[in-house]
Amino acid sequence: MRQILVGVCLAAFALPSACEEVARSSDNPCQGPDCAASTKKSLRRPAQDGKSHAQILTESKTCVRYGCKDEYVRWQDCQCNRDCFKNQNCCYDYIQQCKDPRNAESPVLAALPKASAINKTTSFRGASTAKWGSCGEFTCAETYVSWRPCQCNSLCKDYGNCCSDYQAVCLSPPTPAIPGPAPQPPAVTPDLPDTSGPSAPIAAVPVEATPPAPANVFSVNVTALPWTWKDGLNAPSDSPLLTFYMYRAVSDEVYPPLNTNLGSLPGVLWYLHHEVVIQAPRKFRISRILRYKVQMRATAPLLRLGMHFGVRLAYDKGQATGPFVCGRTNVTNKDGTTEGYKPKFCGDGAFNAQYLPDLKPYKNEYEYSAYGYNVGCNKLGEYPFPMHPVYYPNAIWYTLPGACPNNLYYNKDNSCQASQPGGYCPNMEPNGNGTCTWNYEDAGEISLDELVGIKDYASWMHSRREYDPETDEGVKFGWWNGINSTTANQERVRQAAELFDRRYPYMPTVAELTNPPCDFDFGYFYKEWYRKDGYSGPCGPPNAHCKGGIWWIRHEGLTLHPKWYVPLTTSASDDDIQRLLYQLGENECLRPCNWGETPTATTPGPSNEEAATPSKEFP
Known about the structure:
Elements: H1 2-8, H2 16-24, H3 33-39, H4 53-59, H5 63-66, H6 84-87, H7 94-98, H8 135-138, H9 156-159, H10 166-170, E1 242-250, E2 260-263, H11 265-276, E3 288-296, H12 300-304, E4 310-311, E5 314-316, E6 319-322, E7 324-332, E8 338-346, H13 366-369, E9 376-379, E10 396-400, H14 414-419, E11 438-447, H15 448-452, H16 457-460, E12 465-468, E13 473-475, H17 486-503, H18 522-525, H19 544-560, H20 574-584, H21 608-611
Parallel strand pairs: 4-9
Antiparallel strand pairs: 1-3, 2-10, 3-11, 5-6, 7-8, 9-10, 12-13
Helix pairs in contact: 19-20
């Protein structure tokens, strides 16, 4: 059972904290309605029940109450173990109770770094600041304080939970504290199925939007960026700006949407239907659907192919896990001869440097090296997952690449962020260069219980069941019945959209910021991997026939048919074009020799008439 639970953590939309829970513990000592209710309190938003912070902390989230431990305890609202600092979930008194140098028996004393040794990293593009609280009120500290709704430590930018005045108070001379906005209005229960009765909708009060973090950016190391063909990736693109909503299924603990997978509203409901509500309690204790208003602009290499989106990579704990192209394989005939080539995909985990020899000339994963840090999309039912019929129309999943996509969320230092800055660019409209393709702002949330009409899930789930995939219906409950009914699924999406519109009447409706088509094209995106390797085989100077092909491609082909010659652009060198013709087996071209390499073969030159008629590649 433990292995099964660990396996499901690879699913899309899984939160890091939830996967860590499964990985570290398969038993939950916390049972019953009271305990279940306690787990719903966010580690980043203390319950606002009229009690002071001091009362809340004394009564619940303290290491005085829980005791210092070596292991993770999943039922606790905060942790007192050696990994809590790394996982950003320590109780507020963890340092005093468990890391006091006077306590020689502290189980975590030797495991944590000293405050002076903490690596102060800053996100290249910044991250969203928290809406509530002030560093002027809390004071600056080197530790994570679980009860605070926002943080004032040197790692807060990596986790996107800094208070809005962190820069001014903690990194600059003190300034007056910034007051927080008014509290959120109460949730509204709409007239949805399986409720005791309809209730009148209440117009929500606009909540002050949280601006992106201040642009505390450090210089990008241009020479270390992963792309080789820089034309179009280090300059703004001509792609149109797209603005639309993305959605995310989460528990009561959530992190900013950098290096994560999100979805269209149908895409998130598909995920909930197939992987979340089939168990009780719900998978990863998911309880909400968050909404983000996203702006994005495609890079020039994507636009040349008629695309705005790249491939969707899966992300786990802030790290891209593929699938990555890692070279090419031969397509052979029955007699063993090579008929052609196709891309090879490797692994189900982080990108491995051992792939690089087969990815020349790229210096890192092809998916971002060739097209910049693009927003990826995946129409459910097509590559990469799931590859079977889907009955939620317009179900799409997305990738939003942040800094250091190849590293886990706690391992993104300054050097990494300078060379792999990601595509997130706050405080500005995305311009479509390789490092500025998207931004976002919070756009509200709805409760899953409110959507489906459950008033008290903790007690409700003991006598009912939301959905049983074996019977295709719930037990004493019908909201999720008919997983393969397009009509029923469309009605579920309609009700979710209606609930968002009711709760946030001052924002654009779901229909007004609906998702654009997912135009990722597998064949064009991976086109160059259907050709033979251009960095092995005989090399030599171009003969007359080869030179004719180079001339035609440079002066006509690249302008008339840019898709034919991916990844070349009008700034390609003669060697680049010769290498492409060699890969295509056209115009008797050999591979261009590297600097200092001795030509290994020569080809006879064609007649003048043949040289005047260069070959062309057709799609």
